Amino acid sequence: MSGTGAWNTGIFEAYRLFPNGYLSVLDDDDEYLPNHLTYCVTAISASTVAVFQRLIWHNDDKSTMNVDLTKESLTAENFFVGNPGVQGSNMFFKTQTLVEIGGFDETLPNATDRDLMIRFLWKNDLNNITVLENISVIHYNHKKPKVNNDIPRKQIGLDLFYKKYKAHFSEESYKKSLARAKAFFSYNPKEQIVICMPLKNAEKTAINAIFSVLQQTNTKREIVLLIGNDNSTDNSETLLKEITSQNPNVVLLNVNFGNAYLNRNYLNEYVRKNYPHCVLIGRLDADDVIYSDNTICQIETLFDKHNFDVLMCGNKQVKKGIILEWENKPSKKLLQNDFLLNQLFEMTIGNPKAELPSCNSFIKPTVKTEYPDKASAEDHWFTVLLLLQKENLNILIDENLLYCFYSLDGIVTKKNREDDNFFKSRLELHSNFKQEMSLFGIKSNWSSYITTKGLSFHIANIQENKRKLEKYWSLTYPINNRIEKEIQRLKNARIRLLDVGCGPFPKSGVSHENYIIDRTLVDALANEYHKLLKDNYVDTYGQKIICCDVEEIEARFISCSFDIIYSKNALDHTYNPIKAISSLINLLVNDGVIILEHYVKEGEHTNYFGLHQWDFFIENESFYISNKTKDIIQNVNTLFKIVKIESVYEGNKIINTIRKI
Questions:
Q1: List of E strands, 485-547
Q2: How far, in Å, CA of 308 to CA of 364, rounded?
Q3: Over the stretch 261-311, which tens digit does the pLDDT of each residue have?
Q4: Contact yes or no for 288/340 (Cβ under 8 A)
């Protein structure tokens, strides 16, 4: 396709011959300067996975261009947009790291360097990468036939690249990437609006629903209807195959879920992965009909004007074939917590006019919210989950636009009313939203305190105890005793350790005579801590704290990245410790362990001052977390089936050991 087969042959043969060696790449039309390999080899340390040096472009017109490569620029996000300076001939890797990510992707006709670097950066710590800023490679940017000069082939490659990675793009990086592709390669793909339709045994209603999509007029974008047929036993599949054979914009997927929420989530994710230029995802049930022929056109116009992340509009309800007089329209007051809470309460007592217009939402593909596993009202849950993100999402509520004629005669709805799931789910939703309101209040106070007073304790501490504290940064400071015990149980020569909420002086330790410890430090105040340390002349020996809220840590690391995760007096200072623990479990390898050291009921002890909004304690031999108002009291042991939790008191501390099984 693009030389990748030859590169991979070399990579895997080199690994067979020299499993502990390093590998350098040189394109057949580029040139190493005399000391390139010497510089690379000299820069190798025990933990080095790659060394990159800057290159210079020599153009056909005799002009040159220096490529400014820095360590800070080596992010997957930058490689989504373009190439910040690592391409072919300035690649120097520990061979094992290329084998671990499968080498180059041989299915791509181009963009292979970017693809390789994205996967490499996802898997490897930036601290183990060296960037030398001297120029040591010449790239000859000639106009002879080569991969990037074949524009039609380049456009095909970009299609594949976006299809592979679009789900990981931020909206900003996608726009930048698309603008670059258009400028350099005349890449101008057609955008889509995709309507998702989960379907089961709907031969009597599906045709009207489908044709209400096909009849949409005056849209600038391509309209695609994606149908998930979930083991229909009636004549639905035959009808659908006939329709899809005549309409290329109707796509049929035969699925096997048996649950509407799984089907909905699958279709949404399918869109993200297979329609990289989709701008909006909508939904339409197989017994509903879009309100008019220009409804999608109106939604498209709203999108172009407001660039919303989420649109909520209304519907007309249909019962036993009769269109009801009343219009189910959303109120903009749904963005107010008290109003939404009252609506949810009214739903629990059966008020039909309080029902959320939950079938009438459109979302950008970048909105990753999923339908939850609920026997009833999963669409109402989905709507509430969207509304809870109003601080981060641009949610547009159109109080006048009607999206569809919505049937009240669904088989599942009827069954849920009969077996009481209908009201049980609504009661649970109301209770859940009350808890989320408490979490929202805690997060607001947490953010305010972090911003205004987050450093106050540490400033005083470093002024009084600098000499005692700076030893924690030493590369010879011994590993924490609890961690050492778990290391011996794991029996690995190299241990990947994550210290969460490490503060300006990490207490986990980093040295052991029998093991190599790859330690990663994370704290929400990392940037402020590094400034504090610099101002007070504390040597961190090149170690860096990554800035990240623990609740968002899964966005920074891939699953199963760490053998041991350690946190001391930190998780009870987060705004959502339950979510934090869930995220940390996902980052843990199988048989790995999380060690938590915290004070018992510190929130109660400090009268819930500042960051101390949570109580950690043991009850009936289980690990509990609660807040001040006690509307959140959670037995952590019952939450996660893939771990075993052991909890003990040591004086005024609670020690939780969470093992992934």
A1: 494-500, 516-523, 545-547
A2: 8
A3: 999 999 999 999 899 999 999 999 999 999 999 999 999 999 999 999 999
A4: no
Identify whether residues 487 and 413 lie together within a single domain.
no
Is the same domain home to 168 and 252? no
Confidence (pLDDT) at 530: 93
Whether residues 377 and 303 fall in one domain: yes
Residue 441 within any structural domain of the chain:
no
Number of helices followed by number of strands (H, E) in the chain: 20, 25
Contact between 135 and 57 under an 8 Å Cβ cutoff? The reply is no
Residue 499 located in a structural domain: yes
Which residues fall within 8 angstroms of residue 349, CB to CB, at 6 or more apart? Answer: none
Position 440 in a domain: no
Domain shared by 320 and 350, yes or no: yes
Domain count, the chain: 3
Domain with residue 236: its CATH number is 3.90.550.10
In Å, how far are 194, 308, 366, 488 from 305, measured between CA atoms?
Answer: 19, 9, 18, 60
Question: Residue 217 contacts by C-beta under 8 Å, 6 or more apart in sequence?
Answer: 293, 294, 297
Instruction: Produce one character per residue of 107-142: b if its CB has 16 or more CB atoms within 10 Å, e if not.
Output: ebbbbbbbbbbbbbbeebbbbebbbbeebbbbbebe
437 lies in a domain?
no
Separation between Cα atoms, residue 429 and residue 371, nearest integer Å: 13
Domain boundary at 380, 409, 427, which?
A: 427
Looking only at Cα atoms, what is the longest distance across the chain? 83
| 513 shares a domain with 623 | yes
Residue 418 has pLDDT above 60, yes or no: no
In 452-587, the DSSP E strands lie at 494-500, 516-523, 545-547, 562-568
Tokens of 132: 């030398």
pLDDT digits (tens, 9 = 90+) for 618-630: 999 999 999 998 8
For residue 381, the enclosing domain spans 192-427
| Closest alpha carbon to 254 in 217, 219, 292, 227 | 227
Other Cβ atoms less than 10 A from the Cβ of 208: the count is 14
Enter the pTM of the model: 0.65
Tens-digit pLDDT profile for residues 142-189: 777 666 667 788 888 899 999 888 888 888 888 899 999 999 888 888
For 154, the token pair is 């380049």
Mean pLDDT, rounded, for 465-486: 94
